[in-house]
Design brief:
By secondary structure, the protein is of the alpha/beta class. It is about 30% helix and about 25% strand. This is NADPH:quinone oxidoreductase family protein.
């Protein structure tokens, strides 16, 4: 099979497109012929050695795939060859084939295209877990989403609306804000042209936001740390700006809000039943039209470097997908 290989932590252009042995389905595993693989911001960090997890090299990156089962290992009874599925794998997704534990693979309804299914996992599942398990978002609360036109930001806008929140979208351009608005955002803030703190104050009547889904870090986090409502929840999703901020903890004391870390990959391992239940709910919401996957662009597998660069440069509105 062909795959994208990270042979050493290095700049993205050092990734190679190589022939590797086909994977074999061991006990409790299935092999999936990959039709689509999602590209995520952490993928670019991972291969450069900049992520929290540092796997031994060489490895194949990629955490979310959709495709058809081609082989089933011993002890797997709920799946069979020929099934359309989506799967979560910590590594191995950027390839023509991938072996996964059957426990992380779910049947895929015919109504969901492979490209959209691959984009439904990490971005939407991160947002869903963050807003449901971590923030306990309630109908009628105010949800602010930074990077609201990116993959997981756009998912948070959709899921926030599905959960009954009033959604404030923060983006860096009018074009991106239009995408957020088309996906349900109620209030739009252009961070490149408007004062974020003042606009939040205006949008919330000076009360601050109940829940902030924060993917940017840096100055944006600094501002939000001063714009939270009493009993608010500031969700730490990532640091797309490149600067990991430091929190003046006295703000959490006097303003009475919580800062909550969101690490979806660990959640899937420590709370697998909750993860599966979340995915079933997401798939139902998709079929009901409450959420959707906006595919920005599909790239051939051999062009994975271009795909990752587009995500890392924050040029994406929705999801980027690889199609082996």
């Amino acid at each position: 099979m062909k795959a994208i290989l990270c042979e050493a932590f290095a700049p993205l252009d050092q990734l190679t497109y190589k022939e590797l042995p086909d994977p074999v389905a061991r006990k409790g595993e299935v092999v999936i012929d990959v039709a689509a693989a999602g590209v995520n911001f952490p993928d670019g960090l991972l291969v450069q050695g900049l992520y929290q997890m540092k796997p031994p090299c060489p490895f194949v990156p990629g955490t979310e795939i959709a495709g058809t089962i081609s082989a089933v290992g011993e002890g797997v009874n709920h799946l069979k060859a020929g099934d359309r599925v989506v799967g979560v794998t910590m590594l191995g997704g950027y390839a023509e084939k991938a072996a996964l534990p059957a426990s992380t693979v779910m049947p895929l309804p015919d109504a969901i295209p492979f490209e959209e299914a691959a984009g439904l996992i990490t971005a939407h599942a991160t947002a869903h877990h963050a807003l449901k398990q971590r923030a306990n978002l309630q109908a009628g609360e105010t949800l602010l989403v930074t990077g609201a036109a990116g993959g997981t930001g756009l998912a948070a806008v959709q899921i926030g609306k599905a959960m009954g929140a009033r959604v404030i979208a923060v983006c860096s351009s009018a074009e991106k804000l239009a995408v957020a608005q088309a996906n349900g955002a109620d209030v739009l803030i252009n961070a490149s042209e408007q004062d974020l703190k003042e606009e939040i104050k205006k949008a919330t009547g000076g009360q601050g936001v109940d829940v902030a889904y924060e993917v940017v870090g840096g100055d944006t986090f600094d501002t939000l740390s001063r714009c939270m409502a009493w009993n608010g929840r500031l969700l730490v999703i990532g640091f797309a700006s490149g600067r990991i901020p430091e929190l003046p903890v006295n703000l959490t004391l006097v303003k009475g809000y919580a800062v909550l870390g969101v690490f979806w990959g660990t959640f899937t391992q420590k709370q697998p039943k909750d993860f599966i239940a979340n995915m079933m709910e997401l798939i139902q919401w998709y079929l009901q039209g409450k959420v959707k996957v906006v595919v920005d662009q599909c790239f051939p597998l051999e062009n994975a470097v271009d795909a990752i660069n587009k995500v890392m440069n924050r040029q994406v509105m929705g999801k980027v997908i690889l199609t082996p």
